[in-house]
Specification:
about 325 residues, mainly beta, 7-stranded mixed β-sheet, 5-stranded antiparallel β-sheet, 18 strands, globular, DUF7918 domain-containing protein, DUF7918
């Protein structure tokens, strides 16, 4: 598909666009050109599209120099032409042909520079008023341009039925008044398709691949996460991100005699202490009780209850 200045054009054969090679853009002339392969006996159609210019346009198709009316577009949309009318209800389709060796009559009416070309010219216009439809064209009876046997040319296939011609069309004036004194609308953009045989395009190095093979699209799959079953006694793991290794204080044994033991590592031991008769109070140098009886506090006589007979400290060691 050739695209320039808000319009596109392409050639269709059997419902498929033809490949285009060596596409060139001439900005000074608002023209885009390319090479296309032609095959003998194949009908073709010219398609074009307005990408939303919001301006009316009319088109003309030139086949080896022979001009065929195109269609109107009203600022948007797509149109096509696949033949030339022979009556109000019939037409002859465009077809690629080879020059017959028996062909002797050659017409010089077609400019040599337009031989071997299908050209679409788009003109931006302003509609003025309706007028009667264009008269039916007379098709050329001789071969256009200078050719030799075996060369390709554009011909017209067998007559067939088509949509009935509308009884009227429009008179137009130029929308872009860029050419002072011009009475006819100038060409806004043109698309040139130079058709040649497949063998010619290959021999000239124009087409290295006549039917380019598109590489299949590579679809990136999301990484597959493996789910591993863990014992119920193990803590759950976050599989989205590997856990960071942290030093767990609870797993480190006490570093010294003053370290507080972990709760799980505490052990309870019981022992039996046999009371012994001592000369002094076991808590000496801590507290002195002056009201104690001279007997040992560990004896059975006297008052042994700590709440009975305690007095205030004497203040001595």
């Amino acid at each position: 598909m050739l695209t320039h200045r808000g319009f596109s054009a392409w050639i269709v054969v059997e419902g498929k666009p033809l490949p285009e090679y060596l596409v060139a853009v001439d900005s000074s002339k608002n023209r885009v050109s390319c090479w296309i392969p032609s095959e003998e006996g194949k009908n073709f159609a010219v398609h074009w599209k307005d990408h939303g210019g919001k301006v009316d346009s009319c088109s003309f198709i030139t086949l080896d120099g022979f001009v065929v009316p195109g269609r109107f577009l009203f600022g948007n949309g797509e149109a096509s032409r696949q033949g030339v009318r022979t009556s109000a209800t019939t037409e002859r389709p465009f077809v690629f042909q080879k020059v017959d060796e028996a062909a002797s009559e050659i017409s010089s009416e077609s400019p040599p520079k337009e031989i071997g070309m299908v050209t679409l010219r788009v003109k931006r216009v302003a509609r003025v008023e309706t007028r009667p439809a264009n008269p039916i064209q007379e098709l050329p009876k001789t071969l256009l341009g200078k050719r030799k046997p075996g060369d390709f040319c554009v011909g017209f296939g067998e007559e067939k039925g088509t949509d009935e011609q509308h009884p009227s069309t429009w008179s137009v004036i130029a929308h872009d008044k860029t050419v002072p004194g011009s009475k006819q609308p100038s060409t806004y953009v043109s698309f040139v398709f130079r058709y040649r045989s497949r063998e010619f395009l290959e021999a000239q190095g124009i087409a290295t691949e006549l039917e380019p093979v598109c590489a299949p699209a590579v679809t990136k799959r999301a990484p597959v996460r493996r789910v591993v079953s863990l014992p119920s006694s193990m803590p759950s793991l976050d599989i989205r991100e590997p856990p960071r290794k942290k030093t767990k204080l609870a797993m480190i044994p006490p570093l010294g005699p003053y370290s507080r033991p972990v709760q799980d590592m505490r052990r309870t031991a019981s022992c039996k202490v046999e009371p012994k008769k001592q000369d002094g109070f076991p808590g000496r140098r801590m507290f002195t009780f002056s009201a104690l009886t001279p007997e040992s506090p560990w004896g059975d006589s006297g008052t042994s209850s700590p709440e009975a007979g305690f007095s205030q400290s004497s203040g001595t060691d």
